[in-house]
Specification:
single chain; 137 residues; alpha+beta; Pnp Oxidase, Chain A; six-stranded antiparallel barrel
Length: 137
């Protein structure tokens, strides 16, 4: 689907996205995270600290939403987040500037990866509005 491909190209160019978790009180909590990697619009990864509020939220409720935009185009994704502390994944995803946040490097016990997997996408691209899910992602 052409609009999904355009959305994937947009995401590939984005350095930051917004990511929403659900608080203990049931409210959405949005934060900006640095995107490490993406696969189309179905999967994306970001780094954070295991002691962060968003990790606490995702450990209690993995439902999430991610959003990004470029120029007049925007994409909102709904899906689930996994918190990954696997050393091999952490090493694969490591970017040198992370050292500013994780002084022990890739082995820092607070460093973890968030993996977002989309189940649905609402796209506004080139004045076209569409919501897709499942195999269309």
């Amino acid at each position: 689907m052409e609009i999904v491909n355009k959305a994937a190209d947009m995401l590939a160019e984005c350095d930051e996205i917004t990511l929403a978790s659900i608080s203990e009180a049931g409210y959405p909590r949005i934060c900006v995270v640095s995107k490490i990697k993406s696969e189309g619009i179905r999967k994306l990864w970001a780094a954070t600290g295991l002691n962060s509020v968003k990790v606490r939220h995702f450990n209690q409720n993995d439902k999430a939403s991610a959003c990004f935009y470029k120029d007049e185009n925007s994409v909102t994704l709904i899906g689930r987040v996994s918190v990954i502390a696997d050393p091999a994944v952490k090493a694969e995803m490591w970017i040198d500037w992370f050292i500013d946040h994780f002084q022990e490097g890739v082995e820092d016990p607070n460093y973890c990866i968030l993996q977002f997997e989309a189940e649905e996408a609402t796209l506004w691209i080139d004045n076209e509005f569409v919501t897709v899910g499942g195999g269309e992602l």
